[in-house]
């Protein structure tokens, strides 16, 4: 591992820890040249499916884009970062469990809506209005009636 400070190739592992879930290894390293310390993380690299967009084009799955969509819907809502991170992990796990090389953006959108419905009803309605391209107030009313009947969200 190259030192991020001086670029030297010689580093030593000072400490190794595994996270609670057992899927990430955290290593504290020390550069043998400049003696500075830094942290690295290791995780298994799993191949996420390609996303087939509405126009038929294919793009790589981007965790950051998924998170940005969730955070946009959750803007100014009282939902913890931990709850959002957990939702992202659940979506990724579901995508991997499909075992498919390609998945439609619509399928991902539906997964996002299910997670948002659990996290925050207002965020769910926000996302649904854009995702389903609401044209009039009746569509909003229908979704609001739907979420009013569902249990209280978990994301707080």
TrEMBL record:
GO MF entries: ATP binding; DNA binding; zinc ion binding
Cofactor(s) recorded in Swiss-Prot or TrEMBL: Zn(2+)
Record's protein name: Transcriptional repressor NrdR
Renumbered zinc finger spans (unnamed): 3-34
Similarity comment text for this entry: Belongs to the NrdR family.
Cofactor annotation comment: Binds 1 zinc ion.
Protein role: Negatively regulates transcription of bacterial ribonucleotide reductase nrd genes and operons by binding to NrdR-boxes.
Native source organism of the sequence: Accumulibacter regalis
Matches recorded under InterPro entries: ATP-cone_dom, NrdR-like_N, RNR_NrdR-like
Record's keyword terms, sorted: ATP-binding, DNA-binding, Metal-binding, Nucleotide-binding, Repressor, Transcription, Transcription regulation, Zinc, Zinc-finger
Gene Ontology biological-process entries: negative regulation of DNA-templated transcription
Pfam families the UniProt entry points to: ATP-cone, Zn_ribbon_NrdR
Domain ATP-cone: 49-139
């Amino acid at each position: 591992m190259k030192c991020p400070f001086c670029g030297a190739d010689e580093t030593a592992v000072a400490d190794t820890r595994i996270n609670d879930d057992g899927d990430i290894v955290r290593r504290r390293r020390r550069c043998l040249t400049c003696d500075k310390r830094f942290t690295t993380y290791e995780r298994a690299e799993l191949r996420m499916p390609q996303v087939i967009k509405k126009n038929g084009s294919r793009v790589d799955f981007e965790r950051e884009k998924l998170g940005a969509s969730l955070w946009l819907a959750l803007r100014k809502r009282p939902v913890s970062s931990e709850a959002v991170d957990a939702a992202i992990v659940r979506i990724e796990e579901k995508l991997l469990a499909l075992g498919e090389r390609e998945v439609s953006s619509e399928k991902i959108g539906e997964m996002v809506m299910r997670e948002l419905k659990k996290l925050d009803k207002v965020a769910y309605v926000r996302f649904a209005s854009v995702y389903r391209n609401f044209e009039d107030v009746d569509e909003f009313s229908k979704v609001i009636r739907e979420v009013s009947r569902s249990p209280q969200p978990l994301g707080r």
